[in-house]
Amino acid sequence: MKGTTPTMKDVAQEAGVALGTVSKVFNGLPVGDSYRIKVEEAAKRLGYQVNQYARGLRSGKTYNVAVILPGVNHPFFAALAQHLCTALMQREHRMLLYVTASHPDAERECVGMVRQNKVDGVIGLTYNPLTLDGELPFVSIDRCLGPDIPCVAADNYGGGRLAAEKLIELGCTRLAFLRTGSASPSETDKRGDGFEMTCRSRNIPYDALRLNDGEDYARFRAFFQEHMAAGRLDIDGIFCSTDLLAWQVQGMLSELGVRVPEDVQIIGFDGVRHFDQDKLYCSTIVQPTRKLAETAVDLLLTKDRSNIPALVCLPVSYAPGGTTRE
Amino acid sequence: MKGTTPTMKDVAQEAGVALGTVSKVFNGLPVGDSYRIKVEEAAKRLGYQVNQYARGLRSGKTYNVAVILPGVNHPFFAALAQHLCTALMQREHRMLLYVTASHPDAERECVGMVRQNKVDGVIGLTYNPLTLDGELPFVSIDRCLGPDIPCVAADNYGGGRLAAEKLIELGCTRLAFLRTGSASPSETDKRGDGFEMTCRSRNIPYDALRLNDGEDYARFRAFFQEHMAAGRLDIDGIFCSTDLLAWQVQGMLSELGVRVPEDVQIIGFDGVRHFDQDKLYCSTIVQPTRKLAETAVDLLLTKDRSNIPALVCLPVSYAPGGTTRE
DNA sequence: TCCTCCAGATGAAACATTTCATAAACCGGG
DNA sequence: CCCGGTTTATGAAATGTTTCATCTGGAGGA
Q1: Fewest CB atoms less than 10 Å from the CB: which of A300, A316, B205, B253?
Q2: Which helix (H) or strand (E) covers residue B52, if one does?
């Protein structure tokens, strides 16, 4: 017992081999079997663990990955964070989590800390393109930031189509698409685009109401009141760009005395759940959160960074959650 | 432009000073003002950032902290994670997040990774005592693990008392305490203890139903049915050990045709909110999540580890959330 | 003018690893 | 048994810090 944590040199001495040999064993490089065994046994005897900081210093590989999220309070981000963490750990990496609260300043600050910390790569769901200039492998989740930044996202367009198809299938004849401005500009729009395309091709009348950044939810309320002119809502199917919005719309409608799903059916987007339980907030288009996380990690850790797809689009699915007639 | 990231040596050269002087500047050690300025300007010119791995290797200080949580899906844990992250970043540390899903195996695995990663300390909300043997500074959140492990927790006992007092104040005459077995054994019990003490001292009749690990929620349903013998519920105030439970109890009661808060008032515990919005799930005893996180971080980063309090107990508060008459 | 001190700057050594040029070991074939 | 050729182990150099023993310059006293 030396009282101090054992080093590779100690292991080499204990095993009676050279320092470099021990290094190779712990990096999976080819080593003669007899040597490998000697080293492994010596390491176990001493309780040796690789010092990640020395490794990081010398080789640049640090085995940890920075994850930048707007927050972890929202269940979609929370699920993402959780799956990213487990996916990374399965691949022997650690997750360095930065939360930005969506402030560009905070995001910039994170980039500084990320660079300072010398991580192997960054997985981010951010608003600004994060000026990493290709210094570091970067994978974006749910936001296409540029041609040379790989992005993994749910099939937002297809999800929009699916929502429209479901509502029509469930008997709706007059639809609406509601969207908040706080979400990213490009991706959430695709949900609306898919929705509108389907409505048009099926010849179903619809309204689309997009809130700009900073605008109040009051506009939604006004929208509903307009459509209640005849005493009852003249819309019977609503697609909301997020479950959060769908949840709030439910509140507004119940205040107005409109019943869900009897009078109007609502479909949200995300597939988030109450607590970590099963219950959905509403009928919804479910994002494949786990698959998103795993794909992002795989993409990031791919050795050959020359031919990486610019966009991986994962399929979504429909799940009834009480705000539709099925 | 050298094409490679600048090192301290580069900064020293650029500033025309010695290597050690640059080091001192970046560690806040005393340096002559003229030197300090020269170094800071040179560093800015080169865009220099301290290499944390070299620093960690040499000095043992790594400026990152491991945070071990059962999960990040539950809004209470999510809020905790978020506040821990910001509190750490404010103190120039990074958060290495490990999620365990409450499996002892996963927790053990985390300890290994933590040790291997050479972090400055660990903040954990875990089930098992995490055999760190005082190797590393450790702060436990919400669970008292032992005499030499500092713990920061909400005032669970006081919260239980507060819940009982509120219900009584709001006119309840027959109370119940419900608790799930999945939460930690000791801490959640304190909530019940406080509740029962107050009921007893105020001479209010009450039932207490504690679910053991693995037992089904069906027992709660059975409990309610028993108490509906007279056609209507003979209990008019319920205290649930968590908001999650309160939420599910609401569902059961609405199935039974019991109205909340007209027939029975419910108070939960945690103070978690829908998404990251304001809306509470129920009337509740609010945990000071942010304060918990900040205290844990401060405790962990305290230099002088000799006289650290074994338990810091933070005050809770009551917040009406629709399941009480105020 | 010279000597003594002292605050403060200096740079070599150490930290634990990876990598690479070199050396040793091994294996067949003549 | 020896000799090329190939495979595999070796250990010194290098990575970017911090630390500490040493050195320097300047002020103050005689």
Answers
A1: B205
A2: helix B52-59
Per-residue pLDDT of chain B (326 residues), as tens digits, is: 446 789 999 999 999 999 999 999 999 898 999 999 999 999 999 989 898 889 989 988 888 899 999 888 888 898 999 999 999 988 888 898 888 876 777 777 777 777 776 788 899 988 766 666 666 788 999 988 878 889 999 999 999 999 999 999 999 999 999 998 655 556 778 999 999 999 999 999 999 998 877 777 888 999 999 999 888 899 999 999 999 889 889 989 998 999 999 999 999 999 988 765 678 989 999 999 999 999 999 999 887 667 788 899 999 999 999 999 97
Using the structure block, give the residue that is written with the tokens 């059916």.
A265
Residue (of B157, B257, B222, B231) closest to B207 by Cα position: B222
Residues 3-42 of A with CB under 7 A from strand C: 4-5, 7-9, 19-20, 23-24, 26-27
B266 beta partners? B238
- HSE-CB at A300 with a 13 A cutoff on CA atoms is 30
SS3 state of residue A137: coil
DSSP state of B146: -
Distance CA B39, CA B24 (A): 10
Closest C1' nucleotide to A58's CA: D15
Q: State the Cα–Cα distance between residues B273 and B79, nearest whole angstrom.
A: 10
**Residue B263, burial from CB neighbour count under 10 angstroms (0-12, 13-18, 19+):** middle
Q: Is B164 buried (19+), middle (13-18) or exposed (0-12) by CB count in 10 A? A: buried
Query: What pLDDT does residue A200 have?
Result: 97
φ, ψ for residue B218, nearest 5 deg: -55, -30
State how far the alpha carbon of B199 is from the alpha carbons of A37, A245, B162, B195, in Å: 66, 41, 11, 6
**What are the CA-CA distances from residue B114 to residues A78, A84, A238, B59, B176 (Å)?**
22, 18, 48, 18, 42
Q: Is B171 helix (H, G, I), strand (E, B) or coil?
A: coil
Is A67 a residue whose pLDDT tops 80?
A: yes
Smallest Cβ–Cβ distance between A78 and the set B50, B78, B117 belongs to B78
Predicted confidence (pLDDT) per residue in B250-297, tens digit: 989 998 999 999 999 999 999 988 765 678 989 999 999 999 999 999
- Residue B15 CA and nucleotide D29 C1' are separated, in Å, by 36
> Are A119 and A63 contacting, i.e. CB atoms less than 8 angstroms apart?
no
pLDDT-based confidence at residue A1 (cuts at 50, 70, 90): very low
Element (H, E) at A311: strand A311-314
Residues 6+ apart with CB under 8 A from A247: A268, A281, A282, B274, B275
Global confidence as pTM: 0.85
For an interface test with A, give the residue of B275, B282, B289, B290 to mutate (most A CBs within 10 A). Answer: B275
- Nearest nucleotide to the CA of A57, by C1', is D15
Q: Are strands B317-319 and B284-286 parallel, antiparallel or unpaired?
A: antiparallel
For the CA of A298 and the C1' of C3, the distance in angstroms is: 71
Residue with tokens 């920075």: A66
Picking from B1, B88, B94, B269 by the largest number of A CB atoms within 10 A of its own CB, the best residue to mutate is: B94
- Stretch 269-288 of chain B: residues touching chain A, C-beta under 8 Å: 274-277
As a whole number of angstroms, the distance between CA B223 and CA A146 comes to 58
CB A51 within 8 A of CB A7: yes
d(CA A319, CA A259): 20
